[in-house]
């Protein structure tokens, strides 16, 4: 016959077994939430830093000084993710509407490809047709500069190894900056022929 004290001991044993069954799932869920939250926070902070860089690029301290702007952005990124490897890229365009656009060409054979000696507008002046009309230099007056920051860092929680996720996280943020109009904007478009 079970007495009240024996019944209480048996219930404690059942609780321990139940917790042992639930604990791994609970820990994985918590680590997943922490990992997701940390990466979301890092992405949000990096995007905010890049947007702040867009505003800062209009002041005299950073105007036509990309290294100082990069250093300021990297400093802010490292406050959130100290171990991040930060990379920067810039592409300049004559106008906002040019960002990411190909150079225009006359598609005489209708194949959608610039070839067979078809004429094209050489917007960036490199004597060849480009699928991205960005300029070589990013410091022209009033240029629209596509500024992209990429931060790569190791995951903060060991969940990645347990569920075979990529142990590295890559976060990118981009914005378009407008250079200050210290000079007249140079817009030289020549015409070439596709190979």
What's this, in brief?
The chain is an alpha+beta fold and 195 residues long.
Kindly describe this structure.
The chain has helices at residues 4-56, 66-80, 159-163; strands at residues 85-93, 119-122, 144-154, 168-178, 190-193. With 195 residues, the chain is an alpha+beta fold. It has a three-stranded antiparallel sheet, with helices on one face. A two-stranded antiparallel sheet has the order 2-5. Helix 1 packs antiparallel against helix 2 (66-80). The chain starts with a helix and ends with a strand. The model has no long low-confidence stretch (mean pLDDT 80).
Keywords:
195 residues, alpha+beta, two-stranded antiparallel ribbon, elongated
Residue share in β-strands: 15-25%
Instruction: Give the topology string: H per helix, E per strand.
Output: HHEEEHEE
- Given as residue ranges, the uncertain stretches (5+ residues, pLDDT < 50) are none
Going by helix content, strand content and strand pairing, the class is: alpha+beta
Shape: elongated
């Amino acid at each position: 016959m079970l007495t009240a004290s024996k019944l209480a001991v048996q219930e404690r044993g059942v609780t321990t077994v139940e917790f042992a069954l639930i604990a791994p799932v609970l820990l994985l869920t918590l680590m997943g939430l922490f990992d997701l939250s940390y990466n979301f926070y890092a992405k949000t902070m990096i995007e905010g830093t890049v947007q702040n860089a867009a505003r800062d690029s209009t002041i005299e301290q950073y105007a036509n000084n990309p290294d100082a702007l990069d250093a300021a952005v990297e400093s802010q990124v490292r406050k959130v993710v100290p171990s991040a490897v930060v990379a920067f890229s810039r592409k300049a365009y004559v106008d906002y509407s040019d960002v990411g656009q190909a150079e225009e060409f006359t598609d005489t054979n209708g194949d959608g490809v610039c070839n067979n000696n078809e004429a094209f507008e050489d917007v960036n002046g490199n004597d060849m047709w480009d699928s991205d009309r960005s300029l070589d230099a990013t410091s022209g007056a009033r240029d629209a500069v596509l500024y992209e920051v990429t931060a790569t860092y190791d995951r903060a929680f060991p969940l990645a190894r347990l569920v075979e996720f990529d142990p590295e996280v890559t976060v990118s943020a981009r914005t378009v900056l407008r250079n200050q109009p210290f000079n007249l904007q140079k817009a030289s478009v020549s015409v070439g022929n596709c190979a």
